[in-house]
Structure formats: structure tokens, C-alpha cells
Amino acid sequence: MSVIDQLAPVFRIVFDDDTLQIAADNTANDIEGWDSLSHMNLILAVESNFNISFTRKEILSFRNIGDLAKCIEGKL
Amino acid sequence: MFFQTPLFIVFLAVTVCLFHISAIRFRAIILLVASIIFYTTMSAPYLLLALAWVALASYSFGLLMGRSESDRQKLWYLWLGIACNLGVLLLLKYLPPIARHIDPHINKFIGSNFLPVPESLITIGLAYFTVQAVSYLVDVYLELYAPERNFCHFTLYLCFFPKLLQGPIERAENLLPQLKSLNNPAYDDLRAGAIRFTWGLFVKVIIADRLGLYVDQVYGNVHNFDGFVFMLATYAYAFQIYFDFASYTDMALGVARAFGIRLSENFNRPYLATSVADFWRRWHITFSSCLLDYLFKPAQISLRKFKTLGVCAAILFTFILSGVWHGAKPTFIIWGLLHGLIMAVSVIYKPYENKLLKHFKIQKNKYVYYVQVLITFHLICFTWVFFRSSNISDACYVIFHFTSGASNVRGYFTNAGPYDGIILMVGIICLLTVNLFKKFKADRFTFFPSYVRLFLYTLLLLAILVFHFPSNQPFLYMGF
User: Fold this and answer.
1) DSSP labels, B453-475
2) Helix (H, G, I), strand (E, B) or coil at B91
3) What is the DSSP letter of B22?
4) Is residue B57 a contact partner of residue B81, using CB atoms and an 8 Å limit?
5) A57 vs B contacts (CB less than 8 Å)
6) Segment B270-275 mean pLDDT
7) Cβ B311–A57 below 8 Å, yes or no?
């Protein structure tokens, strides 16, 4: 299962949408309710789910879900 | 040489002609020289030194970060670069008012003036290009943008004259690539740029400047007024500051378009916001996105272990600094603090509000929308009281006397003058008509035949020439 497939359930819980589908090129503009506040909830949920920790620089440099997935892959 | 002066029109015409007749490889230099000449007309030679300092420091530290292998070293360069930029901003913008406060206290001991305190220093544009330089450095550090190697392009990125005095604050990834490929602008760029500039000029000299008549007489002497007049003056200010700043943005984007450059939009109907957070996604967008990316997000990340409290603290931190950026006056800091407090509180109650609306299935109900817009507008107006007032005492007087009565309403309208009042009303009707038209016809006036459009443009120019506000009012946001 790819990292993006593993991320999908996390997104569905954070954004409270069981039908949510994600793709590598998705950004905050593509997902309803994804603002700077829910972004941090997402980061915390991802860290908890994958048992990893992001640095500040990594979090600030994420441009889309693909960047997030690539960073997670590097830590696994 | 401000946008609304005849001298600027001449300057612009000459620069556009030189730009269009010159070879592509010389265009960046032409724009840079024009920008420096433009900045020189602000009659503050130290600002050119400040610009040179910021450009050199940011360019150098950007290159150093690009060459550095170690992340720790890159971080050092980043902080040094930020310190160089903020240092000059603090020195020129905040030192004079701070020195004026502490100097009398030092005088008591020394018995003479200790600090050569200037009355005031012109700092037009400084706050904007320093923030832009900081955004460039952070983007280089985060490897979101490669360091710029061409000093001419980099300096032009900072001081490009359409956006030099009042923004928009441009990200490197948007503006630098455009400045590196200054091809021949299309006819459509020239036409669209001219229309946008002229429309901005109309809103500024017909509407925004006249609204000042309904604001300045009250906020200049609050003890002469009360109640209903305070409300009217505050509403008037809400629209004065919006039209003033938005018109500048229109003019800046119009001028840039004449060179084939697309600057960023700065406004998106801010008074239709459904929350204060939404307001900041629509008001001074380039500045608020800098606040979000370079202040709020790093603070939020650092405090993420504290969850909601951490978010609230990050919001307060961001907006207090936002107030400070606008100026060293306590009223600006309170304005920023109020915005921070309102948003911090909404972080706590918003999830419950959303659940309630979802429960009753009225999230997209139009009456809920209207109520949200109305409440948000009035919260914003409440904060504008502090933003506009000369001092905290005046702001508190206005706040505590909002419901104190309705005396002197006639005097309020009479002071503004019937002639200006009528022109203002007609101007607002034109504005509303154009906005309604834009809502239904996205390609604007090209819907009309060319002779109708020519007639309308001529009418617009004549209106500006005949009915412009007699005295040359500076743009409000140039003071920050």
C-alpha cells in the first residue's frame, strides 16, 4: 500500500469526510475545510499515525500531499 | 510623485515608451533605473540607502544559503539576513517615536536633549520591501526558491515601482521569473492595464478622498460628536480605507500590466467575509499570506503540542506583530490584538458552531450567511475605531459614546458639503453598477461594442478631470 493510500484514512478522520479521496497534487485549496488550523491537526494526526516527527522546516516546505507523502517515505 | 499626480502620468508614459522600444536585454535595467528615480522623488535620500542595504544583505545571504551544505549554517544566514532587514526597519520606523518617548526622561538627568530626535521620518515603502526581502530569504531557506544570482533582477524585484510604495508584497516565485523574461506585452495587456489604472484613479480621487470628509471631521475632534455620528464616521472610514487601498492596488496592477507583468491581487470583497479569519483571506491578501506563512505557521508548529491553546497563542503573537508593523502607535497594537483575540476565541467556538449548523442542516443557508457577514463587518468596524483614532483616549471615547445619542447629525453632513456629497453618491452608484456588471459579465466591458466602450472610457476620464477631489490626498496605506 502506498503512503498516499495510508494517508487517505487520516485525511478522512481529520476532515470528517468518509468519501474524501486524495491525490499527490492536491493542496489545501482542493479539500474543503483544509485551512491553517486543520492543517496542524492533520500534521499531528499524521505524526501519530506513522509514529514519526516532522521538523519545522519540513512542515513549512510542504506544498501538496505529494510533498507530505515523500517526506513520510523518507522517515519510514 | 504619487500615482494620482500629472507628473506620474508623464513619467509612466516615458517609461512605457522606453520599455517598448528597447531590446529585451535592457528592459530590466530600464525598469530598475525608473524605479530608483521614482523612489528618489519621495524626498528621503536615506530610503535609497535603506533599499540598497536591504537588497545587498538579502541578495548576499540568499547566495550564501544556496552555497551552504549545512542546515545549521543556512539557518544562521537566514537569521542574519532577517536581522539586517528588520534592523533597518526598526531603526527608521520605530526608533524616532520610541526616542521621543524616552528622551524627556533622560533629559531630566542630563538637562539637555540627549538624542537628536527627528520630528518624523518618511518611511514610504520601507515596511513593504523589507517584508518582501524576508519572504525571499525564508523561501530560499526552505528551498522553495533558488537563490537569485542576478543582482539587477533581485533589486528590481524589491523596488519595482508600481508596487514599491504600498505593495502588493510579491513572492519571489511570482515576480522574479516575470522580471527575467520581459517580453513584448500584448495589446491586451496595455489596454487592460490602462483601464485598471484609470478605474483605480477614479475610485481614489472621486470616492475614497471624499469619504475622508465624513471621517476626518469626527476622528479629528471626537469630543464634538457623539452616538450616531460616530457610527456613520466609522462606517465611512471602513469604506474609505478599503477604497483607498484597493484603488491603489488597481493602479499598481494596471501600471505593471503595461509592462506585461502580473502582480498579485490584494483584495477579494473583504466586507463580504463570514468571519474575521475569512476577512484576512480577503483583505491585504499578500500581507496576510506573509503573516500566515512566515509568522503564524512557524509559531503554530513550535506550539503544536499545546493544541488549541498553542494555536490561540500563535494567532495572538501574529496579530500583535501585525499591529506593530503598521506603526509604533499603541492604537495599532490594540487593533492587532483585537483581531488576534477575536480569531483566538473563534478557534475555540468554531467547531461547535459548525456542528450546530450541520445538525440543523443550515451550513449553506443564505440567512445564516447574511448574519455572519453582518456580524463580521461590525466586528471589523469596531477594530477600525482603534486603527483610525489618534490615541487610545479618543478610541475609548468613541466606543463608550456609540449609543449616546444623535445630536449634530445635520452638522456632520453639512460640514462635508452638499457638492461633495452628491459627487460621492454618484461615484458610489457608478462603482456599484460596475461591480454588478462584473458579477454577471466576467469579461467586463468587452461585452459592449467598441464605440460604446470608447464613450464610457472618455466619460471616466472626464469625470476624473472635472470631479477629482481638489486637494491631493496621500494614499492611507503609504503611512505604514
Assistant:
1) HHHHHHHHHHHHHHHS-SS-PPP
2) helix
3) S
4) yes
5) 71, 141-142
6) 94
7) no
**Nearest-by-CA chain A residue for B278:** A35
C-alpha cell at B286: 499578500
Residues of chain B contacting A, Cβ within 8 Å: 71, 141-144, 277, 292-293, 296-298, 300-302, 304, 307, 311, 347
CA distance to partner chain B, nearest, from residue A5 (Å):
25
Distance of CA B243 to the CA centre of its chain: 11
User: How far is the first Cα of chain B from the last one, in angstroms, to the nearest whole number?
Assistant: 18
Minimum CA–CA partner of B139 in chain A: A61
Distances (CA, A) of B255 to B20, B105, B271: 14, 48, 26
User: What's the whole-model pTM score?
Assistant: 0.88
Pairwise CB contact (< 8 Å): B311 & A37? yes
Give, in order, the Cα–Cα distances in Å from B21 to each of B146, B162, B183: 31, 20, 12
Q: Please give, rounded to a whole number of angstroms, the shortest distance from the CA of A74 to a CA of chain B.
A: 17
What interface predicted TM-score (ipTM) does this complex get?
Answer: 0.78
Residue B143's nearest CA partner among B173, B175, B177, B168 is: B173
Joined together, the cell numbers standing for residue B361 give 442542516
Shortest Cα–Cα distance, B298 to chain A (Å): 7
Q: For B472, phi and psi rounded to 5 degrees?
A: -75, 100
In terms of CA atoms, which chain B residue is nearest residue A55? B301
Q: Which among B144, B277, B292 has the least Cβ separation from residue A61?
A: B144
Q: Which range scores top for mean pLDDT: B74-83, B341-350, B414-423?
A: B74-83
pLDDT at position B117 over 60? no
Sign of torsion over alpha carbons B121, B124, B130, B131: positive
Q: Average of pLDDT values for B9-22?
A: 93
User: Which residues of chain B neighbour A59 with C-beta distances below 8 Å?
Assistant: 297, 301
> What are the Cα distances from residue B287, in Å, to A11, B170, B241, B280?
29, 9, 16, 9
Residue B58 near residue B157 (C-beta atoms within 8 A): no
- Measured distance CA(B381)–CA(B333) in Å, rounded: 16
Interface touch B301/A59, C-beta < 8 Å: yes
User: Pick from B357, B345, B182: which is nearest to B275 by CA?
Assistant: B345
CA distance B345 to B325: 23
Q: Who wins on pLDDT, A76 or B476?
A: A76
Backbone angle region of B459, left / alpha / beta, with phi > 0 → left and psi within -120 to 50 → alpha: alpha
Interface of A with B (CB under 8 A): 35-37, 40, 43-44, 56-57, 59-61, 63
The cell for B232 is 456613520
pLDDT(B32) > 70: yes
Q: What's the pLDDT at B362?
A: 81
* Interchain pair A37, B142: CB under 8 A: no
Residue B437's pLDDT band, with cuts at 50, 70 and 90, is: confident
Nearest residue of A to residue B302 by CA position?
A: A56
